Amino acid sequence: MNGALDPVLIIVVVIVAIAVIGGALIALVRTTRRPRGGPRSPYASTRDANDPVPGGVGTLERPGGTAPGTAGPDTAPPDVETAPELERPAPVGGRLVRLRDRLSRSNSTLGRGLLALLSRETIDEGVWEEIEETLLLADLGTDPSLQLVEALRDRVRIEGTREPERVKAMLREELLRVVDPTMDRTLNTARHDGRPAVVLVVGVNGTGKTTTVGKLARVLVAEDKDVLLGAADTFRAAAAEQLATWGQRVGVPTVRSDVEGADPASVAYDAVRAGIEVEADVVMIDTAGRLQNKAGLMDELGKVKRTIEKQAAVDEVLLVLDATTGQNGMTQAAVFAQVVNITGIVLTKLDGTAKGGIVVAIQRALGVPVKLVGLGEGPDDLAPFDAEDFVDAIID
Ligand SMILES: Nc1nc2c(ncn2[C@@H]2O[C@H](COP(=O)(O)OP(=O)(O)OP(=O)(O)O)[C@@H](O)[C@H]2O)c(=O)[nH]1
């Protein structure tokens, strides 16, 4: 009987031995990483031996997927894609100033309309009502509009001047007060405790979320940071593809699943794990947002965040809102705020709306600053928000 089993036993032993030696070799190769403090943007130059070759189609297989919390050093690395020809993103400094034309054009009614009203020979009750209406039409919100009208009324009464430069300075000061230049709009994207900063990007589909993650990756690359993207919007396969393409253009790898409908928390976990392994500065996770099923969204987002936190702190939760949606955006914001602790707002499509006042309304509603604004479909049409530049663009 033993004589019949021996060949089988030998084959099993040989297979196990090959698997063990193969695993050990992969683990050895993966430890040959760029040392901290080495050259920046290392993804195109310092590759693991089993990374996809530039321009190639090969991506790493992830056998059976990786369950959250079960991934260890021996598990296969997630799929990582990069591309050879890199674009150079536009410098970040002063972007809002460069893009101010778009803001001025779309919000001319607010700025110039207010200036015209305030410059009238006599400002009677009807004019104050028009001013309030202009503010409300720009989506500034009821309370900030009333506050602004009151402040302007007081100043006009006390100063009693209608001199254009003086009126403009007054309007500038009062608008700035409601936009609030004192809010901390810093993006927390610095490595800490030996780990990458983790940025979770949430928002309803169609608000420009994936586009924003792509644009923000460019902002960070322009700031000389090593970035890694996680495509946790697994609901739509094209979303992961779209994200990977954004990353490829600037040499930023994307962790994604090939399986449509894969567990988003699992992809987020893999992305953060990969970010820790390659010693990235920032891992940015794109998520899905389908408000049709509010309870499901809450569960999913909550799980994504908890799963990430098994490995690293979530440093930023950015809520992406479409500025053209007005009150709808406010409702969305309220829903997301119940699920995750939002640390900053990205207001997209400000180039296509006269409702720039939404900046004020949304900040008031959430008590969270607008940190970035989208001002076009171009890859570098995302700007860090600056209260003074914003107000200047509106009233000039
Ligand atoms: N004009 C303008 N268009 C923008 C801006 N940001 C995004 N878009 C456009 O908005 C559309 C939707 O953007 P997506 O990034 O696909 O939206 P999404 O919310 O990620 O949707 P999913 O990929 O399904 O999750 C695209 O056509 C973008 O080019 C912006 O600041 N201004």
Automatic annotation (TrEMBL):
Transmembrane segments: 6-29
Location of region: Disordered: 34-91
The reaction(s) this protein catalyses: GTP + H2O = GDP + phosphate + H(+)
InterPro entries: AAA+_ATPase, P-loop_NTPase, Signal_recog_particl_SRP54_hlx, SR_rcpt_FtsY, SRP/SRP_N, SRP54_GTPase_dom, SRP54_N_sf
UniProt membrane topology term: Peripheral membrane protein
Domain of life: Bacteria
A Gene Ontology molecular function term of the record: GTP binding
E.C. code: 3.6.5.4
PROSITE patterns xrefs: SRP54
Primary localization class, coarse: membrane
Keywords recorded for this protein, A-Z: Cell membrane, Cytoplasm, GTP-binding, Hydrolase, Membrane, Nucleotide-binding, Receptor, Transmembrane, Transmembrane helix
Enzyme class: hydrolase
Compartments reported by the entry: Cell membrane; Cytoplasm
Signal peptide range: none
GO annotation, cellular component aspect: cytoplasm; plasma membrane
Membrane recorded as keyword: yes
Residue ranges with Low complexity bias: 63-79
Residue ranges annotated for the SRP54-type proteins GTP-binding domain, each copy included: 369-382
Binding-site residues for GTP, renumbered to this chain: 203-210, 286-290, 348-351
GO biological process: SRP-dependent cotranslational protein targeting to membrane
HAMAP family: FtsY
Family, as annotated: Belongs to the GTP-binding SRP family. FtsY subfamily.
Function as written in the Swiss-Prot or TrEMBL entry: Involved in targeting and insertion of nascent membrane proteins into the cytoplasmic membrane. Acts as a receptor for the complex formed by the signal recognition particle (SRP) and the ribosome-nascent chain (RNC).
Subunit structure: Part of the signal recognition particle protein translocation system, which is composed of SRP and FtsY.
Classification via PANTHER family: SIGNAL RECOGNITION PARTICLE RECEPTOR SUBUNIT ALPHA
Protein name according to UniProt: Signal recognition particle receptor FtsY
Species this protein is from: Tersicoccus phoenicis
Gene for this chain: ftsY
